Amino acid sequence: MSRGSEQGTGSMPGLGHNGGPSMEPGVLWRTHAWRSAQKKLMPNTIPKLVLQMRLKRAAELGMDYQTYAKVRQTSGQDVLGLLFSANALRLLRDPHLPDLERAALARVEHAGRLALIYRPLAPEVVEAANPEIDIAGSAPVFTEGWGAMRDKVQSVMRQRGLSGASVVVIGDAPLEREWTTAGRAAAYLSAAEYFKNGAHN
């Protein structure tokens, strides 16, 4: 066999070769690159028990799993409070929650159910009429400044002993999206996103 044939044969991986990096110069870099490529091919899985716990927690909050997982990933902690606007709850002139919203809030477990209420309704009247709402406060309006918005949003959180990072704001108007920043909240969901089961469809 010629020298060229020997070299050609030697350059091919033999039986049982795992496709890993060769042991020629530069092996450390090739090993790193190979392991990184292998890692990217592996599925990014969550242990089954953790997944089951998170599915259960999402259901307790009235969220689908994808929404809950995204919020948790962004905030880095669990959701302990839901802050609804009066618009999201369809509380306009009647202080009583409509049936669909009432049922949705009644299903929430192990989380504070907060609400910010617009005039002419009074927060204390809404609270008294709806045991499904734990704490209600006065909603900021567009004529007020940023400081007033921040104070009103954070005040209702503090009454429940919650940090903004553990609260999701659920609104139904452009201004209400800004409550997320004012309250340093974990995330904002539109009423349509939260009430996917029909309340706002």
Helix and strand topology:
Layout: H1 3-10, H2 27-41, H3 48-61, H4 65-75, E1 81-85, H5 99-106, E2 112-117, H6 123-129, E3 135-138, H7 146-159, E4 167-171, H8 174-182, E5 187-190, H9 191-194
Parallel strand pairs: 1-2, 1-4, 2-3, 4-5
Using only CA atoms, what is the Rg?
27 Å
State the share of residues found in helices, binned by percent: 40-55%
Distance between the termini: 78 Å
- Give the class from helix and strand content and strand pairing: alpha/beta
> What is the number of independent domains?
1
> Which word captures the global form?
elongated
Q: What is the mean pLDDT? A: 86
Quick one: how many beta strands? 5
Number of separate helices: 9
- Residue fraction in strands: 5-15%
Descriptive report:
With 201 residues, the protein is an alpha/beta fold. The chain has a single domain (48-194), classed as Rossmann fold (3-Layer(aba) Sandwich). 45% of the residues lie in helices and 12% in strands. A five-stranded parallel sheet has the order 3-2-1-4-5. Strand 1, helix 5 and strand 2 form a beta-alpha-beta unit. Helix 3 (48-61) packs across helix 4. The chain is elongated. The model is unreliable at 1-10 (pLDDT under 50).
Summarize this structure as a short list of keywords or feature phrases:
201 residues, elongated, disordered N terminus, five-stranded parallel sheet, 5 strands, Rossmann fold, 9 helices, alpha/beta
